[in-house]
Amino acid sequence: MLGHSIKVDFLIPGTATGPLLHIEDAVSIWGGIDIASGRLIEAGHPDYGATLAGKLLVGGKTKGSTAGPGALLELMHKGCGPAGFLTFGPDPVLLAAAKAMNLLDRKPAPIAIVTQEYWREVLRWCRECPEWLLTLDADACTASVAKP
Hints:
The protein is α/β, with parallel strands linked by helices. The protein has 4 helices and 10 strands, in the order E-E-E-E-H-E-E-H-E-H-E-H-E-E. Helix 2 packs across helix 3.
């Protein structure tokens, strides 16, 4: 694989490039991620210890309380949050945090969603090319991977 692109829809438009980080299991933003470092600290989570800062989060389903959007907003404000999100469907915590960032005149991280057909392709990227860079581009409506 030399690089590949797929069509995506953007819930929150933007452009971001960074290492991809696939988090398959849902994570609690409030209490599951260290706000000061962006490190996943949820006990028993399969991705415990992973750092979200600057990564493009693939999957990224959230769980937990209504404090999640506020915690994600603080994480993003401190520069410790993901650079963007590529998901299989809309997530209310991600959307609420992005909307709050807009209200505070902060640039939210882009949120792109993919269809079932393309989701399988994205998971293949995560398995076969975990060190590659993922780019979300709202102008082109694409997500793509390429060697760094």
